[in-house]
């Protein structure tokens, strides 16, 4: 009889009890901030339409009084970031919570969300995400009276998920339609059903390139250079010299895989190589002007409007952020565990035998299925992330096998070399599965583990390996 617990409150708590976890925290959201979301090309919206963040869709009704405005300018930018997993890839490509939710539910929302969700990542490779954008001046809602907002303030930063909307209140204000303002005062729930939680305040058009460069068999001396180069690339709409040399080196050796897609511009078929990628990026300004396509929008909360009847704001649906973050972390680890089970290159010995990785994969699959069910429920009713707020993937990461074999371990040339096996294995596993991931999350998500917790995982692995080898 299989005594392994199914995913439930009990099994989640048992995982959390292994080592103290880092709580998932939602982004701070002010009432004058708008959410940056990929434009839903399969179900397009219009300026001013309502938007329901719970369902990641529109009730297809305009509930505000406004006029459409637009300025004349072009923004172009390019960024490169290391992508350790699907979460960091989605962030590098500015995939919103709405995009992640739809991909979790198996529904295509935007090209960027699908690209991040379906990308093939390997645990033994190094991955660099590229985002190049050229945005023509956005179309935006403006008050019926008073000066236009400053459109330049409505452009999100390269890695931003929110923009400051205070420019909407200079001299005039967008207003709710009178009958709907009364509905919001008498029945907020009915108002949300009719109008959503916010309205489409800005639509950005232009062209963009989503890209992923996957380096295989990266030499130790190149790994750090790659990380530093990715952080410094993108200035001037081109790769810096250091990144360019690494791309050239691994491309010539047949150890670089490039995948990319262009949104906007004329339809073209590209070969997937370095030259084609850089050609697509360099041609974006011309393509964006000649054939612009909507690819970003900003949704503004109704509760930020001056005539919102309730002084309290509509709740920010941060439960969705909690669920999508957990889901993207799980699908990454499931891919890595599947890779370890079916491909050479992992030390499946000691406490991480093949059967243990199978059990680990099955527990993660159960978690993922539970999350998908919750996301589908979110789109029908109020979300409740519940115990998922306290959930951490670090216990799962601590159970992943060591990449590489004994030849990857720095054995000392001393008599006690074999006695060092538990510590060396623990160091390599913790570095690959926990330290690198924690560094990224600490930098980009302000989610930092305590060093004592990291050392707790290290000692936990070391003791298990020591027992398994009889030391």
Structure report:
This protein has helices spanning 9-16, 86-92, 97-104, 111-118, 178-186, 188-195, 220-232, 241-252, 274-282, 284-290, 318-342, 354-378, 394-398, 421-444, 451-468; strands at residues 33-38, 50-51, 64-65, 67-70, 74-82, 126-136, 139-142, 162-164, 175-176, 198-215, 256-263, 293-301, 346-347, 402-403. By secondary structure, it is an alpha+beta fold. The chain has two domains: 9-26 and 316-468, no CATH class; 33-304, no CATH class. The strands form three sheets. Strands 1, 2, 4, 5, 6, 7, 8, 10, 11 and 12 form a ten-stranded antiparallel β-sheet that branches. It has a two-stranded antiparallel ribbon with strand order 3-9. The chain is globular and about 85 Å long.
List keywords for this structure.
alpha+beta, 10-stranded antiparallel beta sheet, two-stranded antiparallel sheet, 39% helix
Structural class: alpha+beta
* Percentage beta strand: 15-25%
Question: How many alpha or pi helices?
Answer: 15
Helix content: 25-40%
Envelope shape: globular
Uncertain segments: 1-31
Number of domains: 2
Distance between the termini: 32 Å
Summarize the structure.
The N terminus is likely disordered.
List the helices and strands and how they pair.
Blueprint: H1 9-16, E1 33-38, E2 50-51, E3 64-65, E4 67-70, E5 74-82, H2 86-92, H3 97-104, H4 111-118, E6 126-136, E7 139-142, E8 162-164, E9 175-176, H5 178-186, H6 188-195, E10 198-215, H7 220-232, H8 241-252, E11 256-263, H9 274-282, H10 284-290, E12 293-301, H11 318-342, E13 346-347, H12 354-378, H13 394-398, E14 402-403, H14 421-444, H15 451-468
Antiparallel strand pairs: 1-8, 1-12, 2-10, 3-9, 4-7, 5-6, 6-10, 7-10, 10-11, 10-12, 13-14
Helix pairs in contact: 2-4, 3-4, 3-11, 5-6, 11-12, 14-15
